[in-house]
Amino acid sequence: MDAFVARSLDEIRFWSRIMKEHSLFLKLGFRCEDTQLIQEADGFYRLFEQIEAKAHAFTTATDPQQIQTFNVEVYNAASHIWVFKRKVLGLILTCKLPGANNFPLLVDHTSREANYFRNRLAQLNNGQLEPLADAIIDENVFFLKIMADHAKFIGHLLDPSERKLVEQARDFSHDFDQLLWQAQDLSSMRPQSQTQPLLSQFLDQNRVSVASLRDFKKTARDLIAACRIKSIIHPLLADHVYREAERFLAIIDMFENSLTGKPSPNQGAWH
Ligand SMILES: [Fe+2]
Ligand SMILES: [Fe+2]
């Protein structure tokens, strides 16, 4: 099995679905009269839908050369949606879309995910993967910020009358802000901070909070799907942020296995 092919397909299958869903969420937040923006969002939805289907049609037996070409194609698509998201952010921040329903932080957040996806594809194609100790810190800094943002979105999209759930979301937001600062401190202390025990403790501590946020998101998702709570959270958005937490957990486990030298199916992906 070719690790490059497997890793590329795994990233594209996960993130193309995420990009497709971002297009839908952005579209739902535009005003009825923003027909141009709605059409652009629809275009990205179809583009990432096609990419997702193509990624599922390829297998680990596909020629690596063909995957390399596909990675470039997807890289370009991710770049284009990044430009679109930054354009929308600019329109919101200059008050050109009064009354629209996309939070600026949400638009910025989705653009950071597009940029992450694009960078992963570039790294895979260039064969220039970060050393393990750097990847551990950088991936955690990226994902902790993503998790902190999710907690804030959930807190603000729940109905204000759901006082207990709003409070829980606020606690998660605080918890992840603290973890993010810790991660940034560890990053600042590089390379001296990159010892096996410190990195291992860092992963353990993050894992505990991510698992607990993941469970909270799962509960919220199920409650929303069953129409048991009041919110303006789209059921697909609830599932979307749950899947991103699962992804982060899988990455943490993969790093832990690499640190301790345990064999892992994704080993070789980052170092
Ligand atoms: Fe997302
Ligand atoms: Fe996200």
From TrEMBL:
It comes from Paenibacillus curdlanolyticus YK9. The lineage of its organism: Bacteria, Bacillati, Bacillota, Bacilli, Bacillales. This is DUF2935 domain-containing protein.
